[in-house]
Amino acid sequence: MKIHGRRFLGCPNYRDGGGCNYFDWIDPPISNRKKSTFLSLLRRNESSEVRQHRIENKLEFVEGEMHMLRADVDRLEVERQSLEENLRTLEQKYKFVVYVLIAVVCYSVGRSIVS
Fold first, then answer.
1. Can you give the three-state secondary structure of 49-111, one letter per residue?
2. Which stretches are annotated as coiled coil (predicted)?
3. Domain residue extents for the chain
């Protein structure tokens, strides 16, 4: 079991592959309760880091979805404006046809009265 945070003295040449293998703890031995508490906190911290990473991934996914939805909204807004313009054009054509129809009816009625 590797216990982090405990101070020790060791040969300064240990990492270079040489040295005299001297090693001694500076701190007194850690009680089982402290070890248990430390390991529990370490696991909790690692669990929190995993949750944070998971949340960051979800956030990144949601931001991507939001970007795509904004693009869809922009596209649909352009399409809506185009449809509104087409509707205005059709309404103008409809009014013109109605006026022509009224004129034809008036002309026909006026002609039949004169005859």
1. HHHHHHHHHHHHHHHHHHHHHHHHHHHHHHHHHHHHHHHHHHHHHHHHHHHHHHHHHHHHHHH
2. 59-93
3. 8-114
